[in-house]
């Protein structure tokens, strides 16, 4: 994606796009750790910040493994979660008296959240491009994987939304109720484990991808920056991974000291992600070879720009300051 931005605009804008993505991963993973820890805390009775730090340590050691280990781990986790959610949704739809008509009230908040999750899950595949040097035949494998995953993700989300909407499940515990036909009274425990695994899988994808991006950017650097380009014999980016995990540990420490809240982290991460995606869409608009792609990219650029300008003024200030620093 960064190469496309460079081709469409300039090398400086390529670096700015990369810095936005890297900045998002300074904050986003910590929010994900805390979400996973909140699910586990009632089950284990351990402090949320301690659980989050344990997840961070697991991420560090997992990312120092070969890339095929990460792929296998993510595939196993997402497959298990996908199967459980699909079977639970089907069981709920079959076992409940469901009613559906064009006049029935829709919970638009629920549906919009599901669509937003699907959007980020699919857009998240942008990060996969940073693994391309470690993938066999990336020009064929990565596009095929993206298409298959996008279809599967969308189908699972739609199935879950239909089950929750049609069966009129309690919105506050909808997913737990969704798997109740499969696990009964153990549903809360299973849901906590699934949430933690899903959080870890997401973090491994993003931190692993961005650590490889940092490693690539530091390839021609000298001095202390060259340390970010250090790799293990198995190809894992040692320097960049240690750097990102150290930043995440510092941010988690600031959360423990009440300097940041989880909402602050989400706002910062979303702002940087949206800024990154907006530039990418502008590049897609400029490089598009068909009117359909061009107009779609233009429409999404407008939508993303509106989302970006609705962010907190402090987030916009940081984004603008970083842009001025890189592009001046």
From TrEMBL:
Keywords: Membrane, Transmembrane, Transmembrane helix. It is a multi-pass membrane protein. The keyword Ligase does not apply. The chain crosses the membrane at residues 19-40, 46-64, 71-94, 114-133, 145-168, 188-215, 236-259, 265-285, 297-324. The keyword Membrane applies. It is found in: Membrane. InterPro entries: APC_superfamily (IPR050367). GO terms for cellular component: membrane. This is Amino acid permease family protein.
